[in-house]
Amino acid sequence: MLLTTGILGAILTANVALGNAATGNAAFRAYAASLNAASAHKNKTIPAFARKYGLRCSACHTAWPELNAFGQAFRDNGYQLGNERDSPIFQNPSYWPATVRITPQVHEESTTNQVVDATPGDSSIKVERRLTTHGADLSGMDFWTAGTLYKNISFVVLFSSDNLASFHFEAAWLRFDNLANSPWLNVKVGKFELDNLISEKRFLFLSNNGGLYQSYHFAPLGDNNGFGIGDNQLGVELAGHNVGSYTRYSASILSSSDGNPGLVTGNSYDGYFTFSQAFQVPSLGVQRIGAYYYLGQMPTVYRTSGGAPIAGSGVDNKSFYRVGLAGDLFAGPIEVMPFYMHGRDDPYLGTSTPGNQVLPTGARGPQWNAEFVETHEYLNSRFVLTQRAEFVRMALQAIPGTPTNVGDIDAYSLGGRWMPFMFSRAGLALHAEYSLVRTVGNVPLSGDGVGLPPLTPTTNVWSSSLLFAFDFAF
Amino acid sequence: MRLLWITLVAGAVGTAHAQPSILGGTREDFRRYCSGCHGNAGDAQGENADYVDPKPRDFTLATFKCRSTPSGTLPTDDDLYRTIKRGIVNSNMPSWKPLPDETVMALVQYIKTFSPRWKTEKAGAPISIPAEPAVTTDDILAGRALFQKMECWKCHGPEGRGNGPSASTLTDSKDQPIKPFNFAASSRFKCGSTNEDLYKIFMTGLDGTPMPSFADNFKGDDAWHLVHFLRTLQQEERPEKVVWQQWLATHPGQLKPIGPDGSGQ
User: Is the pLDDT of residue A448 over 70?
Assistant: First the structure.
């Protein structure tokens, strides 16, 4: 994944190029997307907490970095165990709440129907070819500092880099926990992960194709809405839970910038609302189901200077929403995570049309449905097998007459992750994964950053990733 | 929806041989959640044991602080279950409340495999707890007198701050330094947060620590008196504290100090 948001930026740029009326707005969207193009891991795990509390990684993670019920409660409580030892004053002064994670790897990426010059160096004739690359590589790096400033005041500062060590703030927030001595009132301010029941930040896939949920970043062909529900966002979150975190809710007000700092879009805000309930089923384990709703808007017109859009000057906001259900279900050592999303963008976003211009004839707000089921089998506390099957289907194309399947995605991933040791200082996982993605007429929402749309919009593009990696965190 | 069913079926392929067992099994769960401090052999020699204060329980000794059973006896399964679910305040033992009940029950049984005591002895019979009397000034004064008479102040300090003259000399049954409870700094106790939990601590003691059982010393409602008095030492606003502060406001200077020269009244 490893640069997945960078790839998304490229996708967005390509989408913009494909869309109609790609104007200053499109250029700006590409610029905004490029700001997001330096991600390291999406996956998060924090051995600093294990060191602070003397707990093994496995206490909080089913298999790191995915949280188990205990880890979820710990996180919901502001990275506190609630044993009156959470304030840093109780730590040895030499303790520094820092964690670093990086993943040396060997991987192969292969994508069909890539548009290339028929003769290298001669761009006059284009043909489609399969492009395959492989070799030793490096992921980006995460450098975490996280913990508590005081009892019931927690924080995260996460510096993430790409594999060229270009850093950005992937997350940076302050949280006031247990306000009025109630776990139902916690306020977080800054840049943070949305309260998704199935976290893309703490999941068990790393490959270029599999290391992201297609559903979390999907945009229809020609749509210039760069929002992804899997992207960290800037804003304020009110969240709460009962003791043990079986019942949880969150409500967020977010800048409509898809998490890019600098007030890049202007004066619009989004809202995100989640609720989930967990319950115990005898012999099976803790089951959690939940719902979410994201209502957002994006400016479509920017003032320009010399033809270039001026950041923060966005107007003519157009709306979009994402709504759906998710679950995290256990059957003993088997974990099954179903997910469903329905998405809709405004016709202006769906056709990349500035709000001060006329829509293409018959333009409609594109709609789509996305679904996946992810399964983990925990053979023991150090070995997990994973699989995921994911589908995105267009329900309504923005431009009438567009084939109904253009933009559809099928994605499959299989993997295994073995932690050769398990203790409370550091983590190491040997990771193997194969992922395969089919996209129709669009750039693969995956790949190694060289994905290009095919020559015809109904062509199936297949992209595969094979990864062997040493994933470690200290 | 058709697609969702397809994906569910795809997921179900992987679950076809799912068995109704705890994630990875009880031994795996113990290693997952407990071994870091308690050690794989339950001997309190986990990799974190050296850095944990107070030290983790040594399950091979089968000596437990939080019990409903008389001092020196084994706890009930429910005692162990509650301890795991509740955690132990002011220690590194967290509340494992989010874990499935079955997992915790299985861990209780697994913990009992570390000591042969569980094969030769049965758990003690839970003590009976009489109904809690109403909080009165006389009741609190009686508790204060007991606090003096039983020399609780020697460890816990005259104001219950855990700073009595003996505090720095205390060790547990493994000769590890141990601090007496500071009533002023916490709203919860080692073995619970209710008055009943505190009552049980007096009457069963915290085995493995210097905190004895007063079951042979207390008569009638003595333990309840002490419970109510100790509640007045805590920071939080409680009924006992309200009653006590009202009495103090109307009886200035009438109390003799608690301590070596005091009478507690």
Answer: no
Q: What is the pLDDT of residues A86-145, one digit of tens each?
A: 888 888 888 888 899 999 999 999 999 988 999 999 999 999 999 999 999 999 999 999
Asked if B4 reaches chain A (Cβ–Cβ under 8 Å), the answer is yes
Q: Is there a domain that residue B88 lies in? A: yes
Which one of A280, A340, A381 has the shortest CB-CB distance to B31? Answer: A381
Q: What is the share, in percent, of chain A residues with pLDDT greater than 90?
A: 71
C-beta atoms of B15 and A331 within 8 A: yes
Q: Is residue B213 part of a domain?
A: yes
- Tell me which residue in B7, B97, B103 faces A244 most closely, judged by beta carbons: B97
User: What's the domain range around B45?
Assistant: 23-120
* Mean per-residue pLDDT over chain B, rounded: 88
The pair of three-digit structure tokens given for residue A325, joined into one six-digit string? 């259900």
Residue A313, domain CATH: 2.40.160.10
The pLDDT of residue A49: 83
Smallest CA–CA separation between A193 and chain B, in Å?
A: 22
Q: State whether B14 and A332 contact (CB < 8 Å).
A: no
Number of domains in chain B: 2
Q: Cβ contacts (< 8 Å) between A330 and chain B: which residues?
A: 23
Per the domain annotation, does B259 fall within a domain? no
In the stretch 111-170 of chain B, residues with CB closer than 8 A to chain A read none
Q: What's the domain range around A244?
A: 4-473
Whether B28 sits inside 8 A of A380 (CB atoms) is yes
Residue B265 in any domain: the answer is no
Q: CB-based contact (8 Å) between B235 and chain A?
A: no
- A414, closest residue in chain B (CA to CA): B14
| Phi and psi angles of residue A57, each rounded to the nearest 5 degrees, phi first | -50, -40
Residue in chain A lying closest to B189 (CA):
A83
What CATH number is given to the structural domain containing B142?
Answer: 1.10.760.10
Q: How many residues are there in chain B?
A: 265
pLDDT one-digit tens code per residue, B75-116: 999 999 999 999 999 899 999 999 999 999 999 999 999 999
Boundary of a domain, candidates B91, B120, B149: B120
Question: Do B31 and A58 make contact, defined as CB atoms within 8 angstroms?
Answer: yes
Record: contact A379-B32, CB cut-off 8 A? no
Task: Find, in chain B, the residue whose alpha carbon is nearest to that of A393.
Answer: B3
What is residue A446's predicted lDDT score, i.e. its pLDDT?
60
Question: Does residue B116 sit in the same domain as residue B141?
Answer: no
pLDDT of residue A182: 96
| ipTM, two decimals | 0.84
- Mark whether B32 and B78 lie in a shared domain: yes
**Mean local confidence (pLDDT), B196-222:** 94
Q: Do B185 and A280 touch (CB under 8 A)?
A: no
